[in-house]
Design goal:
With 76 residues, the chain is an alpha+beta fold. Helices cover 33% and strands 36% of the residues. It has a four-stranded mixed β-sheet with strand order 2-1-3-4, with helices on one face. Helix 1 packs across helix 2. It is globular.
Length: 76
């Protein structure tokens, strides 16, 4: 079982994206996840980590919910 953390820029309006990612991860992988948390941040941050390993960073990757879920699945 894994722990997923989604850190998002609150001032940038990324809350909806973070909630969307959280929802899809729970629907797709809920039985393999121990915990999934949303962490408000700033300065344009939007990252997803699995067991403290970064699997998505909006600074490096295009935002694609399906790809994020695949990356989470591959790291759980």
């Amino acid at each position: 079982m894994s722990t997923v953390e989604i850190e998002f820029c609150l001032p940038c309006g990324y809350l909806n994206r973070a909630e969307d990612v959280q929802h899809v991860i729970l629907e797709s992988l809920g039985e393999t996840i121990d915990e999934i948390t949303l962490v408000p941040g700033d300065n344009g941050v939007f990252t997803v980590t699995v067991d403290q390993q970064k699997v998505f960073d909006i600074a490096d990757d295009d935002y694609n919910v399906d790809q994020i879920v695949r990356d989470v699945r591959n790291n759980t």
